Amino acid sequence: MNQKKAIEILRVNYLRGPNIWTFRPMIEAVLDIGELENFPSNTIDGLYERLTALLPNLVEHHCSVGIHGGFLQRLRDGTYAGHILEHVALELQSLTGIPAGFGQTRQVSDTGMIYKMAFRSPHEQVGRAALAAARDLLMAAIEDRPYNVAVAVATLKQMVDSLCLGPSTAHIVAAAEESGIPYIRLTEDNLVQLGYGARQRRIWTAETELTSSIGEGISGDKDLTNSLLAACGVPVPEGELVHSAEAAWEAAEDVGLPVVVKPYNGNHGRGVSINLSRRDDVVAAYHLAEREAGAGVIVESFIRGNEHRLLVVGNRLVAAARGEALWVTGDGAANIVELVDRHINIDPRRGTGEDAPLNWVAPDVAPEIILELERQGLTAHSVPAAGRKVLIQPNGNVDCDVTDEVHPSTAATAILAARVVGLDIAGIDLVARDISRPLDQQGGAIVEVNAGPGLLAHTTPGRGKPRRVGRAIVQHLFGARSGPQDGRIPIAGIVGTHGATLIARLIAGLLQASGKYVGLSCQDGLSLNGRVLPQGILSPWDSAQRLLINRNIEAAVFETSARSILTDGLTYDSCLVGVVTDVAQPAGLAEFYIHDRDRMAKVLRTQVDAILPDGVAVLNAADALVAGMASLCDGDVMFYGLDACLPVIVAHRSEGRRAVFLRDGHIVLAVGIDETALLLPPQTGQAAQQEAMLVAAAAAWALGLDPQLICAGMRHLASQPLHLPYPGGLPMPDAIACSPEQPRGA
Fold it and tell me: Is 675:661 a contact under the CB 8 Å cutoff?
């Protein structure tokens, strides 16, 4: 196929906030499909067969048809290259473990060759790489050339593992989103902020800002942990800290054989050897543990039973899993490495990445397994006789959910252990023959208390019910706090060109007058309670996000331009109040294919789409395109206008709903026929200035401010200059006074 039939990617953009497509982060690409516009999929011989052979899971894509196999139906009946590319990019991401996401493709040029295509992606670099790989794959399928899907997916998977949130963090973030709590990723690591401003909480994998650093330090000191637990009546194995192989054997004799030898500050079962009774085994286990420890080795009595991991969050036991030893049975032909690969590593849950619930077993590499095999007179390359059972790994294989079986007294003991150590989230390792019986009836004991426990054993167990531990962690962080439980602060967003900057400043001033610490982002820059912040080299989107990260911020006001929506999306995920002042004739947006007011309205409606269900859209009743956005709002709608007789306001009030308008020098706040009037000063003569104050009053009312407070706040703002000059040159009024409340129905 000649070059004219190739897909050319003209521009790629990453939309980080709510945008014209959806609320989620999206890769948006502008495509020139050239002469492929004349070749829908049903006219390219063999394309359907080649593409489905490369990506058989495309059958799972419902597409606009809305049924299983819907996209393949479109592919068979005839669809265009841009649309196909969208689904290929989504499928390549899906093969890396990223859940299937939203995608859409639209034609944007009169000639038909130019398309905008967008698909959801959790990370910009991953999305860009998926787009490039999807184009190469699709062109290979069109041109009947080979393409190595496995290599492409492996490359993307490496990027996902290194760039995206880890599985435990992602699980908590997903639970937060389900509860309506926004999040901000603070670093390329797993440090994440849940909530905004003063209501935020922070997590780092399974640790939170409430996790005590002292508790974390204690949990890393096995000897100190055991002594504290024992002092509080928690059953623990008897043990000693040693610093030589000879001392290890002496300690083993003191505590009584068999014993466990483990690193003083190890984790994840590395360097741990159990059920040791011979001197040579103890000495060898000491040297193994010493390599992991660096600060001594612990020798402790061996507790008989199965290993269990209990997850404590706050003052609750939220999950428990049981582990079992790993064995293989010889067949007289295969060596141990081959038997392990054939019978253990075949489990799809095993892997080397942090998203694998179970670890890959490498008997020729892992020192713990090598030592265990030596105790049985074997090596990784030994060939066991047919029928001989070989112990590969006695611990560390926790994959069976037993949450509902835990005895109440055992749960209480685990919770006590977490509190003694000082951890709000703790992984409690204990050994018991039967988790449904009290520990003291079976000689069970707690052997470790861990900070930052892994969650995969509970979210994706091999057997039993997955546990929603992320939700428990989110409830722990937000459930006990006073006020709203979604981690949100009041946010007002403004889009439009009619005095939007002055409106934003006025709203921020009124919120500040109500006693809140307020952040403001507008065309003039950033300010915190009127103190101007240097913006530096940050983009407007990154700069505005600084407000949401600031722990002092109790409310925030954001002015957003159409260009910013098109390049980045909104800075915040949702807002309590969204203001749309007007839909202007677009200027300077030709690169985004925005040429008329109708397309401009589709951009600005993003502000209305982002309003929370308990929020309010404040819309200009005099602009038909703005007023038409009312039906898109999930929350309430408040119309405003300079004229009380605007048909939209009259109809809205007839339904008993809120409107704000000017009448006889007053700003009137109306609910149906009931009215409250705020007096404008005589010198306020400019219509644009009056309208800015009108809109600010409406937004403040929508934010829940009392009318009298709004009036007093405006009087205060009028008495002194604002810190940020308004580029349009509109002066502040000298005074604003309140009038007595007007008669009902006036």
Answer: no
Q: Do residues 393 and 325 make contact, with C-beta atoms less than 8 angstroms apart? A: yes
Cα torsion at 358, 362, 363, 366 (round to 10°)? -90
Whether the Cβ atoms of residue 401 and residue 464 lie closer than 8 Å to each other = yes
Distance CA 502, CA 508 (A): 10
In terms of C-beta density within 10 A (0-12 exposed, 13-18 middle, 19 or more buried), how is residue 720 classed? exposed
Radius of gyration of the chain (CA): 32
Q: Give the span between the Cα atoms of 647 and 687, in whole angstroms.
A: 20
The predicted structure's pLDDT at residue 480: 53
Q: How far apart are CA 640 and CA 630, in angstroms?
A: 12
Alpha-carbon distance of 319 to 466, in angstroms, equals: 9
Residues of the chain with pLDDT under 50: 1-3, 481-483, 682, 722-746
Residues 166-191 as b/e (b if ≥16 CB within 10 A, e otherwise) read: bbbbbbbbbbbbebebbbbbeeeebe
3-state secondary structure string across 539-568? CHHHHHHHHHHCCCCCEEEEEECHHHHHHC
Whether the upstream peptide bond of residue 258 has omega within 30° of 0, thus cis, is: yes
φ and ψ of 223, to 5 deg: -65, -45
CA distance 336 to 370: 11
- At residue 120, what are phi and psi to the nearest 5 degrees? -70, 140
- pLDDT value at position 530? 86
**Domain definitions of the chain by residue range:** 3-163, 186-237+303-323+400-481, 326-393, 491-738
How many whole angstroms separate alpha carbon 49 and alpha carbon 606?
40
Cβ partners under 8 Å of residue 384, min gap 6: 328, 329, 330, 331, 332, 336, 339, 378, 390
* The pair of three-digit structure tokens given for residue 74, joined into one six-digit string: 């479109």
The CB-side HSE value for 650 (13 A sphere, CA atoms) comes to: 5
Which amino acid is it at 598? D
Partnered with residue 240 across adjacent β-strands are 299
User: pTM for the full model?
Assistant: 0.89
Cα distances (angstroms) measured from residue 705 to each of 299, 343, 460, 487: 65, 67, 47, 20
- What whole-number distance in Å separates Cα of residue 480 and Cα of residue 114? 52
CATH code of domain 186-237+303-323+400-481: 3.30.470.20
Q: In whole angstroms, what is the distance from residue 693 CA to residue 687 CA? A: 10
In 3D, which of 367, 186, 340 has the Cα closest to residue 271? 367
> Are 243 and 492 within 8 A, CB to CB?
no
DSSP 8-class letter at 249: H
In terms of DSSP H, where are the helices of 67-185?
A: 70-77, 81-95, 124-142, 149-163, 167-178
Q: Is 613 exposed, middle or buried (0-12, 13-18, 19+ CB in 10 A)?
A: exposed
What are the strands, taking DSSP E only, across 414-467?
Answer: 425-432, 445-450
Question: Pick from 27, 29, 148, 49: which is nearest to 95 by CA?
Answer: 148
Phi, psi for residue 546 in degrees, rounded to 5: -60, -30
Contact yes or no for 175/458 (Cβ under 8 A)? no
Closest CA to 432 of 404, 405, 468: 405
Q: Which of 476, 426, 428 is nearest to 451 (CA)?
A: 426
Which residues is 306 bridged to in the sheet?
432
List C-alpha distances in Å: 505 to 561, 687, 717: 15, 18, 10
Total number of residues shown for the chain: 746
Dihedral sign for Cα 202, 204, 210, 212, please.
negative
State the CATH class of domain 491-738: alpha beta
- Three-state SS for 17? coil
Sequence-distant (6+) residues with CB within 8 A of 316 are: 415, 472
